[in-house]
Write a structure and sequence with these properties.
Elements (H helix, E strand, L loop, with lengths): L31 H4 L5 E5 L2 E4 H19 L3 H8 L1 H21 L6 H9 L5 E2 L2 E2 L1 H10 L4 H22 L6 H12 E9 L13 H10 L9 E9 L2 H4 L6 H10 L5 E2 L2 E10 L6 H19 L4 H8 L10 E5 L6 H8 L10 E3 L2 E11 L2 E2 L2 H29 L6 H7 L5 E2 L8 E2 L3 E2 L4 H4 L7 E7 L3 E11 L6 H33 L4 H7 L4 E6 L13 H9 L6 E5 L4 E11 L4 H31 L2 E3 L10
Antiparallel strand pairs: 1-2, 1-21, 3-4, 5-18, 5-20, 6-13, 6-17, 7-12, 8-9, 8-11, 10-11, 14-15, 16-17, 19-20
Length: 631
């Protein structure tokens, strides 16, 4: 079908440089080690199969997006999000919606598919769809065209289904107005924070109270989860000595990447610039050119280029005698660059016109292009190839080890000539000798049983950790004597909170009776602060995400000026200052809010539809990895 687009595209062939086009789809994946050789079908939805290949594609796309956003922390973040289960559930939802769309006789036509593909920027050349670019992009990303087009057709069909769900939805003016006020009506308040810490010195405790508090709040004085592991580390360096790089590989790499071993020419130059506006008249151009010709004649007669640049040049380099420093090809506008690189050291150009105006150019120094020979580059190339091969070997072993049972741990360590080390007891706050902070490892250990092994992926420098969980201890309440200091701190803070609340309530009565809040705060040794926020403001500076503070503040007005915000962590006395509603750009902002409200309603309808479809569908989860507890 897509070949019909060829008639609309140009026939100019070109080389697609690596890394220039950012493609939003990738179909080569690396999660195989997680699944090993499990059955290819991972689930069935109304007798339609979800294949492992389909899952891998979807998972890797999501993981790639996380990697772009979070770098080397992406995999840890994916674990926290339970990304594997999320992607699996989304695939089931996709199958359910597609089936429903087909039963409703919805279609994504060839013309719609053509139009969508032709509008994608990574398939365009000079702003137009280019068929050769399309095929090149798919080929370089190892994408089968008919599979890509089928996937896009399904996406278009899902879009139609979602649009149909939202057909007829109307957001009325009152809803928009309410949302607008939530976002743009600001209230300004002064407030006094009654910090419990300021009242701690006024508290006292005895041993009986401490013991009772420890008995009543055992969960507050528990140890953290404790672990012991056996472990060894693997990094790419381990494999470097065992990989061999052949001469023909070095030569092939050098030939393929010759441009990487070319140091381009550089010149150090000065210029004198007379600026011209883009629509300068012919008379103005001729006048400026004549002035530069006169300066050129002076230079040829022996005048100092640098001094003339200081006196006459019309850009920021004038103070430095027109000095532009060193630059390479591609760093200046074409007209300027062509003229400059045509000069020998010490030469001065004729008048050169560029988008910035008219120039005289003088080359002070010149460095010739240098190409590093194969002999000179051999050591570097050998190291690059060895590192690449070592990394590949490491990745293969890590994937293999991640799928093994704990019984294989010792044998695998021996086969790799690795000494197995044993840790002391540690929790997430501690440092494991030779490994560093345990914070990144503990979330993995929390999901394992004693005797199970795993791979803690870190980074190439630190190396990756292959471990087996030896023992684990659940949190337990510390004995009173061991926790006494913490118990006293906690109890004193509880008493200080009560004192803070009593002081705040007394202060509220006083300001309502006419006492100035600022004077009262100063008398109590506290400070007054100001804050502005709306109903939709989440985090309040210096206050945090405090819903009670917002609620009390938004309820205040010219008549009811004072209020008390009490929550588990803070006590604040608030005073109303003023309320303002932003009106600039109100029309555009209200339209954006209307669109957002409609999208939210569409999403709610979609969630309801998916719930209905799931309840009536026959969903069989074949791969046990995706079975949730109790399912």
């Amino acid at each position: 079908m897509i070949q019909e687009l060829r008639e609309y595209s140009g026939n100019i062939f070109f080389k697609l440089l690596m890394g220039v086009i950012a493609v939003t789809f990738v179909l080569s994946f690396g999660v195989g080690g997680f699944f090993g050789d499990r059955k290819e079908v991972v689930a069935k939805v109304n007798d339609q199969e979800i294949l492992l290949k389909e899952y891998r594609e979807a998972y890797q796309n999501r993981l790639s997006a996380l990697q772009q956003q979070f770098g080397e922390n992406a995999e840890q973040f994916a674990e926290q999000l339970n990304l594997r289960q999320q992607v699996f559930n989304q695939l089931i939802d996709r199958h359910l919606l597609l089936t429903e769309a087909e039963e409703m006789n919805l279609l994504a036509t060839d013309l719609e598919l053509q139009d969508f593909i032709s509008r994608q920027p990574y398939f365009q050349k000079n702003g137009q769809f280019d068929y050769d670019t399309y095929e090149t992009v798919l080929s370089q990303n190892r994408i089968v065209r008919h599979e890509y087009e089928s996937s896009l057709r399904a996406d278009l069909l899902l879009t139609k289904k979602r649009q149909l769900l939202g057909a007829g939805l109307i957001i009325n003016k009152s809803e928009v107005e309410q949302a607008y006020r939530m976002d743009f009506e600001k209230i300004e308040v002064d407030y006094v924070f009654f910090d419990p810490q300021a009242f701690i010195e006024k508290t006292s405790v005895n041993d009986t109270e401490l013991r009772k508090y420890h008995e009543d709040h055992p969960q507050d004085f528990q140890t953290l989860n404790q672990f012991k592991i056996e472990y060894y580390t693997l990094s790419a360096d381990y494999y470097k000595d065992s990989v061999k790089v052949r001469e023909r590989e070095v030569r092939r790499y050098y030939k393929k990447n010759t441009e990487s071993y070319v140091t381009p020419p550089e010149i150090k130059a000065r210029h004198i610039l007379f600026k011209l506006v883009p629509d300068a008249s012919a008379e103005e151009l001729a006048e400026k050119r004549a002035q530069l010709d006169e300066l050129l004649a002076q230079i040829k007669a022996g005048a100092s280029f640098e001094e003339l640049a200081i006196k006459h040049s019309e850009d920021g380099t004038a103070a430095n005698g027109g000095d532009l420093g060193w630059f390479k090809p591609g760093e200046m506008v074409p007209a300027f660059e062509t003229a400059a690189f045509a000069l020998a050291a010490g030469e001065v150009s004729e008048v050169v016109q560029s988008p910035f105006g008219l120039h005289l150019i003088k080359v002070d120094e010149l460095k010739e292009e240098i190409t590093k020979s194969l002999d000179d580059a051999r050591t570097e190339i050998t190291e690059i190839l060895a590192e690449s091969r070592a990394q590949k070997r490491l990745d293969e072993d890590l994937d293999r080890l991640a799928g093994l049972a704990g019984e294989s741990f010792t044998a695998e360590a021996q086969s790799l000539n690795k000494e197995v080390l044993n840790s002391e007891w540690f929790d997430r706050t501690e440092v494991i000798s030779g490994l560093g902070s345990a914070a990144g490892l503990v979330p993995e250990l929390m999901r394992r049983k004693a005797g199970e092994m795993g791979v803690w992926k870190r980074n190439p420098i630190l190396g990756h950790v292959i471990y087996r969980l030896s023992e684990a201890q659940e949190p337990a309440t510390r004995p009173f004597d061991a926790a006494k200091e913490d118990v006293e701190s906690a109890l004193r803070l509880e008493k200080a909170k009560v004192l803070a609340q009593e002081a705040a309530k007394s202060a509220l009565s006083q300001v309502q009776a006419g006492t100035e809040m600022a004077n009262l705060a100063e008398k109590l040794g506290l400070k007054t602060a100001a804050l502005s926020f709306s109903a939709s403001t989440g985090f309040l500076q210096d206050v945090g995400n405090n819903a009670e503070f917002r609620k009390v503040g938004l309820s205040l007005n010219e008549i009811e000026k004072f209020g008390l915000s009490l929550n588990a962590k803070r006590v604040d006395l608030l005073q109303f200052k003023k309320r303002t509603l932003e009106t600039e750009n109100a029309v555009e902002q209200k339209e954006q809010l209307r669109i957002r409200l409609r999208q939210n309603l569409q999403q709610a309808l979609l969630s309801k539809e998916l719930k209905r479809l799931r309840e009536s569908a026959a969903i069989e989860i074949i791969n046990p990895v995706f079975r949730t507890p109790g399912a």
